[in-house]
Amino acid sequence: MLDRLQWFREMPKSWLDWEPIDGGLAAHRQLRERLPDAECLVQARHLPQALAATREAPRLGWNPLQWRRASAPRELSSESKVQMVWANMALHREPSPEGLMRQWHRLVDTGGFLMFSCFGPDTLRELRAVYAAQGWPAPSHDFVDMHDLGDMLVHAGFAEPVMDMERIVLTYSGAEPLLAELRGLGRNLNAARWPNCRGRAWRRQLVRALEEGLPRDDQGRLSLTFEVVYGHAFKAAPKLAVAPNATVGVDDFRAMLKGSRR
Questions:
Q1: Stretch 184-204: mean pLDDT, rounded?
Q2: Closest CA to 43 of 78, 70, 67
Q3: pTM value?
Q4: Mean pLDDT, the chain, integer
Q5: What is the pLDDT of residue 54?
Q6: Contact by Cβ (8 Å): 174, 211
């Protein structure tokens, strides 16, 4: 996602990091360095922890004239508008992806853009095969195809969506570290999942099934595929519907006036 910023002619002067802890604090810091003068806002389920985690230490050096304290990200308010929404690995956690896109669309200022990434349908395909062979419910909900995500962006009000994807294969020394990492990657939104907690005997069966059923690389490490979908789209100036009477919001009317002046 950071590499894709070079495609934009103008860098945003304000941006919102959606769930920065889930999206990676390293990526958050790199983006702050890429946009040193841009105002940063944060939206998170656990906002105090997110604000604390994204706060930067004072930048000190030998020259006191260069000392400065980096501005801390602030909380998103009900009136906030930003030129870029940055949502790294957040969309696949939502039961209603298009609903979240509509929320992002309201937050982006006219002429601004959305950048996001999420898991695609090939994610965990090896793990799904193991669960199917055991007769168990799927280990996660189905992830949305990138073409369907592009359609959702248009329905949510965005323009010119650009989608692409890549497949990444991660390897693990055994089932235990694999399960530990999967626990930190998100929620299982599968409606047919087990409604109750499983016991120790089932966990031992799970570990054994993973060790025996997952493919291994040349070094004998367990392999899992992750399909990562990347997308970005713009918020275009609103178009006034042709009708005898029409209602236009103040913000949309201002955006239309700016567009006509250009």
A1: 83
A2: 78
A3: 0.82
A4: 87
A5: 86
A6: yes
State the pLDDT at residue 71. Answer: 60
**What backbone phi and psi angles, to 5 degrees, belong to 83?**
-90, -15
Question: Among all chains, which residue has been given the structure tokens 């958050």?
Answer: 28
Q: What is the pLDDT of residue 258?
A: 56
Rg of the chain, C-alpha, whole Å: 22
Which position has the token pair 């994610």? 123
pLDDT digits (tens, 9 = 90+) for 168-177: 999 999 999 9
Distance in angstroms (rounded) separating the CA atoms of residues 224 and 172: 8
Contacts of 254 (CB under 8 A, 6+ apart): none
Write the pLDDT tens digit of every residue in 70-79: 566 777 777 8
pLDDT tens across 49-66, in order? 888 888 876 555 555 554
Give yes or no for a contact between 62 and 93, defined as CB atoms under 8 angstroms apart: no
3-state secondary structure labels for all residues of the chain: CCHHHHHCCCCCCEEEEECHHHHCHHHHHHHHHHCCCCEEEEECCCHHHHHHHHCCCCECCCCHHHCECCCCCEECCCCCCEEEEEEECCHHHCCCHHHHHHHHHHHEEEEEEEEEEEECCCCCHHHHHHHHHHCCCCCCCCCCCHHHHHHHHHHCCCEEEEEEEEEEEEEECCHHHHHHHHHCCCCCCCCCCCCCCCCHHHHHHHHHHHHHHCCECCCCCEEEEEEEEEEEEECCCCCCCCCCCCCCCHHHHHHHHHHHHC
